[in-house]
């Protein structure tokens, strides 16, 4: 479900009540734990938390580099965690911690899918959001790009 909303608030207003409550709650956890420097924007029809172009202008697609994104899809809601996807040790840590909560993990490469708020361990979401300061994320990104050349 691609959105044309230009702000997170507009995006939330497009959702039905249960989705608005769930996405809004996850958004509040993200905002409360987001390291300094990242910005909340609408990107690719999702609420995204990005490295501003003023910090990193040379990205692979000329767009601000996504750190985390939050979206309501047709069948589920999604939390995209690119810091988990970009680092094998963080991915291992995240998956182990998630499974230790007793909740079922439904995850692609960076996308954690959930159908209701109770499916998502918000304490772990807070930890993973806070885990990667912007300068470290930029360093990891630059290293991954130079390795591909």
Element layout with pairings:
Elements: H1 8-14, H2 17-33, E1 39-43, E2 46-51, E3 65-72, E4 77-81, H3 82-85, H4 88-100, E5 111-114, H5 122-130, H6 134-147
Characterise the protein shown here.
The chain is an alpha+beta fold and 149 residues long. It has a single domain, classed as Aspartate Aminotransferase, domain 1, CATH 3.90.1150. 43% of the residues lie in helices and 19% in strands. It has 6 helices and 5 strands. It has a 5-stranded antiparallel β-sheet with strand order 1-2-3-4-5. β1 and β2 form a beta hairpin. The protein starts with 7 loop residues before the first helix and ends with a helix.
Quick overview:
The protein has six helices and five strands, in the order ααββββααβαα.
Which tags fit this structure?
149 residues; alpha+beta; Aspartate Aminotransferase, domain 1; five-stranded antiparallel beta sheet; 43% helix; globular
Q: What's the main sheet like?
A: 5 strands, antiparallel
What CATH calls the topology is: Aspartate Aminotransferase, domain 1
Return the CATH architecture.
Alpha-Beta Complex
The helix/strand series, from N terminus to C terminus, equals: HHEEEEHHEHH
Total count of domains: 1
Number of extended strands: 5
